[in-house]
Amino acid sequence: MLACDIMVSVFLVFACRAASVVSAVSCHTKEYATRDGQCCPMCQEGTVVQRDCTAYSGTRCRSCDLGTFMNQLNGLSNCFSCTTCDTGHGLFVKRNCTAKTDTVCDVLNGYYCKGLIDSNGCSLAEKHSQCEAGQRIKESGTSRSDTVCEDCQPGFFSKDGVKCTAWKTCSNTQIKVKGSSTSDVVCGRTSSQHYFVFLPFLLCSVAFTSLVTG
């Protein structure tokens, strides 16, 4: 039992020393540290490490496979996956992925970017907002901004949420059904107007009856 404890202690000492050696490794800017504590030259853009360097040879690098890329000096063993531009979510491919650069996506018409990567790329798009009835479009949506809506002012209405139209003006002799922000004023004839329109017909009818019976 004592012998086992001694062996464990010795193993831990060597393990700690090895870990300290690895952590103490300080490689140059264009080098990377291997698992065994060696410094190897980094691979160029478009490639990743296939085999670490040895005392007799430099780092062996391999090109990125189709659908992957590497855009920096590195000591990695795998390339990054190319971004997919999802047309179902308002994105399209503006620039295809290469071995050295990722895909650049932009937004389709009717969408705006909510996840701007830089001045050229977008990672997340959303449909332009639709203004409601009773509102108008104050500022149309663009590829970088959403639609801005504004409520119609008193005396105006909008059925489609595009623009506000002034209420119809009724004459003083008309009955008026009040308008709202979503519907126009309705003008109608007064009861007296109905009477005066009907009166001539009534008189003619009476006179014709008198002639017939007379």
Task: Please specify the SSE layout and strand pairing.
Layout: H1 2-24, E1 31-33, E2 39-41, E3 47-51, E4 60-63, E5 68-69, E6 80-81, E7 91-95, E8 104-107, E9 111-113, E10 125-127, E11 135-139, E12 148-151, E13 156-157, E14 165-166, E15 174-177, E16 186-189, H2 191-213
Antiparallel strand pairs: 1-2, 3-4, 5-6, 7-8, 9-10, 11-12, 13-14, 15-16
For this entry, give a set of tags.
214 residues; alpha+beta; Tumor Necrosis Factor Receptor, subunit A, domain 2; 3 domains; 26% strand; disordered N terminus; disulfide bond; TNFR/NGFR_Cys_rich_reg; transmembrane signaling receptor activity; signal
Q: Mean of residue pLDDT?
A: 84
For this structure, the quaternary state is: single chain
In the CATH hierarchy, what is the class of the largest domain? Mainly Beta
Give the CA-based shape. rod-shaped
Q: What separation lies between the terminal Cα atoms?
A: 146 Å
Low-confidence stretches: 1-23, 193-199
How large a portion of the residues is in β-strands, by DSSP E?
25-35%
Number of strands: 16
Evaluate the radius of gyration: 41 Å
- Strand line-up in the sheet with most strands: 1-2
Q: What CATH architecture label of the largest domain applies?
A: Ribbon
- Structural domain count: 3
Largest sheet: 2 strands, antiparallel
CATH topology of the largest domain: Tumor Necrosis Factor Receptor, subunit A, domain 2
CATH homology-level superfamily of the largest domain: Tumor Necrosis Factor Receptor, subunit A, domain 2
Give the proportion of residues in helices: 10-25%
How would you spell out the order of helices and strands? Answer: HEEEEEEEEEEEEEEEEH
Protein structure class: alpha+beta
